[in-house]
Write a structure and sequence with these properties.
Helix content: 25-40%
Number of helices: 10
CATH class of the largest domain: Alpha Beta
Shape: globular
Radius of gyration: 19 Å
Number of domains: 3
């Protein structure tokens, strides 16, 4: 059996995730696995919000190109960073057991996000988070926040922000769970599509690697993420538009909640749906069409007119 090369970004979180997959493959199959660090455009551009420089694909494009050039055998992604359109010749073979999907607040005074003072400075570069935060607290000053987890925490500690909002999964994986001041309920901050899950991508024609990755796929997490991604794809949305969804298994049924909103938080359209777990994509599409019919189409069209980058899924 050949040695396996994992392509990964070089951030502490990306390396944790890649090493987790490496250790699992070595334990299950006894294979030799190495990491190849690849710098993506998203890692290089840190002085602008993702919505202004191209969106989620900036964190995966170079990893996928290395796969297609056969320099690596698989790539480990945070599923929330993976565009819904996959390059020809590549496939998401496995989606891991999902870590905590919630957004969390880390604050300087350790109080909850909604307890912060009038006009508090809150750091995030996610339009999804901006929309939902301002919907509850229009007085907050939202400040752009980019960089890896360590950088974001340092900026908070230096006093640049009163609070920052991050994904629980990243903090917990890096051992920073004790920094969490408040876990934000889904009714206050619905997560990004795929948040908390890892996606393992390889070449479609690589039967050996696909077989190695098969045991790492978690059917419940995969069904939920596939539902959320179908929802996003039907809306033709990316990280340039405030779109959120979270799906979860309930027995043999899948329940999903989704939203579309305006960046300033003045309008949020929210709906839920449930259906057979065996048909996750159909459920996600049904929920998207429900929201489109309730007025989401108008919001999305206006967003695309303001920012041409939102025209692409």
């Amino acid at each position: 059996m050949r040695a396996i090369v994992i392509g990964t970004r070089g951030s502490a979180l990306a390396l944790w995730q890649a090493n987790h997959v490496k250790a699992t493959l070595e334990r299950l199959h006894g294979v030799t696995v190495s990491l190849q660090i690849i710098k993506t455009v998203g890692d290089k551009i840190l002085d602008a919000p993702l919505a202004k420089v191209g969106g989620k694909g900036l964190f995966v494009k170079e990893l996928e190109e290395a796969l297609l050039r056969r320099e690596t055998d698989l790539a480990v992604h945070s599923m929330k960073d993976v565009p819904t359109e996959m390059p020809a010749g590549l496939v998401l073979t496995a989606i891991s057991v999902r870590e905590d999907p919630h957004d969390v607040a880390v604050t300087r005074d350790r109080r909850g996000l909604w307890e912060q003072r009038q006009g508090a400075k809150v750091g995030t570069s996610s339009l999804r988070r901006v929309c939902q935060i301002l919907h509850r607290r229009s007085d907050f000053q939202i400040e752009s926040l980019r960089g890896n987890v360590d950088t974001r925490l340092r900026k908070l500690d230096e006093g640049q922000y009163d609070a920052i909002v991050l994904a629980a999964a990243g903090l917990r994986r890096l051992g920073y769970g004790d920094r969490i001041s408040e876990t934000l309920a889904f009714d206050a901050s619905l997560p990004a599509i795929g948040q908390g899950a890892l996606g393992l991508e390889c070449r479609a024609d690589d039967a050996e690697v696909r077989a190695l990755l098969a045991p790492l796929d978690d059917p419940a997490s995969a069904a939920a993420v596939r539902c959320e991604r179908a929802f996003l794809e039907r809306l033709q949305g990316g990280c340039q538009t405030p779109i959120a969804a979270y799906a979860a298994m309930r027995g043999d049924r899948l329940e999903v909640e989704g939203l579309v909103g305006r960046v300033d938080g003045t309008e949020i359209l929210r709906a839920g749906a449930e259906g057979p777990a065996a048909q996750p994509e159909a459920l996600g599409i049904r929920l998207a069409e429900d929201l489109l019919g309730r007025g989401a189409a108008k919001i999305l069209d206006e967003m695309r007119a303001l920012n041409p980058l939102t025209a692409a899924p």
